[in-house]
Design goal:
Number of strands: 0
Structural class: mainly alpha
Distance between the termini: 27 Å
Radius of gyration: 14 Å
Order of helices and strands: HHHHHHHH
Number of domains: 1
Shape: globular
Largest sheet: none
Bound molecules: zinc ion
Strand content: under 5%
Length: about 130
């Protein structure tokens, strides 16, 4: 299922996810679950409901003309670059070179920081759209 694109990327073992055990608020847990399951209100998901072809589910908050999926939202969209730079400064030990690997690492090592980043970016996104 295309909807589970990120989940498939991340879920390699059948076990309780580490983020579930860490102390996270309901909102933080929800943001992590939604990025994993592909249910954040990004164009890649919203377009599914409106029968828009996958390659036309373009990010509306930047001018890159690419699909707004989880990787674009978290690591590439220039709309969130200021907030993303704060994240990088906060997590100096994390390697940000490969988005997929970085997402996996953040989910394991820094779920709370990742959750706050997602929440902040969604707020920025909401103000733009
Ligand atoms: Zn964008």
């Amino acid at each position: 299922m295309p909807k589970l694109r990120t989940y498939k990327l991340l879920k390699t073992e059948f076990c309780t996810e580490p983020y579930v055990k860490k102390f996270l608020s309901r909102k933080q847990r929800s943001s992590i679950a939604r990025i994993r399951c592909g249910t954040l209100p990004l164009e890649v998901e919203r377009g599914r409901y409106r029968n828009i072809p996958a390659d036309r589910r373009i990010c509306k908050v930047c001018n890159s003309n690419v699909t707004e999926d989880e990787i674009h939202f978290l690591f590439l969209c220039n709309r969130y670059s200021v907030r993303r730079n704060e994240l990088r400064r906060e997590l100096t030990s994390v390697n940000f070179d490969s988005p997929e690997e970085t997402l996996k690492e953040l989910l394991i090592s820094n779920p709370k920081t990742l959750a706050n980043f997602i929440i902040d970016c969604l707020r920025i996104r909401q103000d733009v759209i």
